[in-house]
Design brief:
By secondary structure, the protein is mainly α. It is 44% helix and 11% strand.
Amino acid sequence: MPISHGPTGAYGPRGAARGDSERGGGPGDGPDGEGVDLSTFWLRAFLEVARQGSFTVAARRLALTQSAVSRQIASLEAALGGAPLFDRLPRGVRLTAHGRTLLPHAEAVTG
C-alpha cells in the first residue's frame, strides 16, 4: 500500500477544505483497495488521538478543530475498508483491535 507524504482526503492541515469531496474516501479508493494512498497526516492524527485518548485533546495538540480530526480519522477508516479504529466512549476513545494493529505501522511510517 503506497504511503504519500502530503495531506490528502477531504481535509488537510488546519481543517482547510481541499479539492476532494467530504464523502470520506481517499485518492484511489477503489473497491479492491488497489491504489489506496494513505496520508501521513491521517496517520499523525490517528497517533495523536491514540496517545491522548481523546479527539478533543488531540485536536488541541495538532492545532485543529475536533471536527477536522474526526474527519481525518473517518477518512483513514474509510481508506482502510471501513473498520473503526477507535471505540467512542462517553469520556474519550479506546483503540479497537484494528487500531491496535495499525498503531506500530503508523509509528514506523511517521517516525
